[in-house]
Amino acid sequence: MGAHTSRDRGKGAIRKDGGHGEAGQACPRHAQGADEGPLHHLPPPLAEAVARCRARAENEPAPRHFRACRPGGGGRAAFQVSQRSKETIPGPRGGILARHLTAYEADPAGFLDDCRRRYGDVFRFDTGVVVVTDPDLVAEVLARTNRDSVPNANPLQGGRFPTAEQTRRWMDARQLAAPTLRSAALPARLPAVRGALAADLDALDGTWFDPSEVCWAICVRALLPLYLPDESPALVDAVLASFDAARDTAEAAVRVPSWMPSRLRRRVRDADQRVRDTIVPMLGDGAPAGTDTMLGHIRSQPGAVPGDIAMGAMGFTLLGAIGTMGAAWCWILYYLAAHPEVADRVREEATAAPDVSGDPARALPYTWAFAQEVLRARPPAWLLGRDAVTSVTLGDVEVPAGTAIMFSPYLLHHDERWWPDDPQRFAPERWLGAGRPHAPGAYLPFASGPRGCLGSHLGLAVLALTAAHIATRKRLEVPGLDAVTTYFGPSTLTPSGMRARLTPR
Ligand code: HEM
Fold first, then answer.
1. Residue 394, CB half-sphere, CA atoms under 13 Å: how many?
2. Cα radius of gyration (the chain)
3. Residue in 170, 413, 453, 492 to alter for ligand 1 test, most ligand atoms within 8 A of Cβ
4. How many angstroms separate the alpha carbon of residue 355 from the centre of ligand 1?
5. How many angstroms is it from 329 CA to the middle of ligand 1?
6. Protein residue with least CA distance to atom 10, ligand 1
7. What is the SS3 assignment for 204?
């Protein structure tokens, strides 16, 4: 936390007037140049609220009245909360955390699930923070992103909203990046992705490793063939440094007013600058870059692409992928080890498939279903949110402008109301039927709407190729599986306490 005091945290957390960030940067979450961390790794307001409460609780421990329950496991909270609140949004007076921090920290998803049983599908969590657990309402919020709301503001910006110009430029960068990342363009580059994955997995042979330590580098190297025709250790290092800095920011879960000098911000800024310094010369280089890579695609545009938009497509989309990709990659290993019968089926399918990398969705339907199920059971982005820039109506609840509207893909994915076939069970086959195995909008590992994931098909492909390679070529050992726990981090969901070893089969 460095020099930040508890009083600094949360002050001026959400602006209600639309903010005044500086224009000219591609990604609104990177507004003001290098001051912001990459996408995905920003602490949601809920994490900040927890950090705020934790700071208060250092002097005055919270009463432990709350009995957390497992998601979907029934059971009611045993605590007494005043129901006399005059607030229109259901929830206890003063927010939930003030009295139940320990319970929240012990089981964040169970706690939220208990709250929704108690207060309904839209409830007030903390000052200026509501949680929505109904898929239709979540879909509505997501569909109206960039109009009624923006993705949660960056805490290193003191919670400033992006300007309309910043959002427009980021949307231009997204549009520029989309053709390289979307499914139709993938077959040309997937063999290279598969080669990079195989090389990294082979390099691990015989070593005990913690997946949550190696996954980030493996994912950057696996995605790089989509961006560049050749390897670039300099870019891999720069991206990983930037990712690390952003992850530490997320873990710190503090809002830093934009005027305040901060070591954390300087580290993020320097790391971002290194990414820029590595990419900019590539963009300017006249040599051909292979049109099926992001770099080649950018260079082949008629007319000059503005630097910030090229940088957005080339750098920020890659940075945006790592946290979620890496976390999902860890869970692939976990579930292969936890369900040997599933691993056997993946192996049989991959062994029989003539070519697994052209389009793994077609060539490996069961393995694809396995990857989808892993993302259902453990969605890396377990908690997401939008900041309302105007007042919005959610069902029969009025949410004022400036409110952070949070939703949890994890909760949606484990809610029996939306999943008729026991959502607590790990069952890849649920994805093999003709229809969708869930209510509309209840499967959200990639969010949705104008700010949803650009790399969903690519992400699933990397996961399926990883699973196929391990199942066919490796013997996977994960001792003490029962002791592996789920870390509900401020930005992603990762396995904690997991050790694995791969040996050639
Ligand atoms: C299994 C892997 C992945 C998962 C689970 C995942 C998940 C997500 C989620 C949940 C969001 C929405 C965040 C929000 O609404 O605030 C998102 C956005 C995004 N993702 Fe992914 N992602 C994955 C892989 C990738 C890959 C491979 C790429 C590109 C190489 C990518 C690039 C992006 C970008 C550019 C955004 C857009 C953010 C914006 O417009 O603000 N993701 N992803």
1. 35
2. 22
3. 453
4. 27
5. 14
6. 446
7. coil
Q: Which atom of ligand 1 lies nearest, measured to the CA of 409?
A: 10
pLDDT higher than 80, residue 182: yes
Cβ atoms 30, 157 nearer than 8 A: no
> Helix (H, G, I), strand (E, B), or coil: what is residue 207?
coil
| Residue 31 scores a pLDDT above 50 | no
Class of domain 28-504: mainly alpha
Question: Which sign, positive or negative, has the C-alpha torsion 49, 51, 56, 62?
Answer: positive
Band of residue 459 on the pLDDT scale cut at 50, 70, 90: very high
From CA 41, how far away is CA 43, in angstroms rounded?
6
Question: Is the Cα torsion angle 314, 315, 321, 322 positive or negative in sign?
Answer: positive
Q: How far apart are CA 316 and CA 319, in angstroms?
A: 5
Distance CA 66, CA 111 (A): 9
Q: Does 358 have pLDDT greater than 80?
A: no
Which protein residue has the closest C-alpha to ligand 1 atom 4?
324
Q: Calculate ∠ Cα 338-340-342, nearest 5°.
A: 100
Instruction: State pLDDT tens for residues 407-425.
Output: 999 999 999 999 999 999 9
Q: Mutate which of 154, 167, 454 to test ligand 1's pocket (most atoms within 8 Å of Cβ)?
A: 454
What's the CA dihedral at 426, 431, 437, 443 to 10 degrees? 80
How far does the centroid of ligand 1 lie from the alpha carbon of residue 320, in Å?
Answer: 6
Nearest CA to 25 among 229, 178, 167, 176? 167
Residues contacting ligand 1 via CB (< 6 Å)? 39, 151, 174, 181, 223, 317-318, 320-321, 324-325, 328, 375, 380-381, 384, 445-447, 451-455, 458-459, 463
pTM of the entire predicted model: 0.86
C-beta atoms surrounding 281 within 10 Å: 8
Tokens of 65: 């009245």
**Among candidate residues 341, 432, 414, 322, the one with its CA nearest the CA of residue 376:** 414
| Residue 327: band (very low, low, confident or very high) from pLDDT cuts 50, 70, 90 | very high
Short-list 178, 230, 182, CA closest to 458: 182
Beta bridge partners of residue 145, listed in sequence order: 149
pLDDT in tens, 209-252: 999 999 999 999 999 999 998 889 999 999 999 998 888 877 77
453 is in an annotated binding site: yes
Residue with the two structure tokens 């484990």: 414
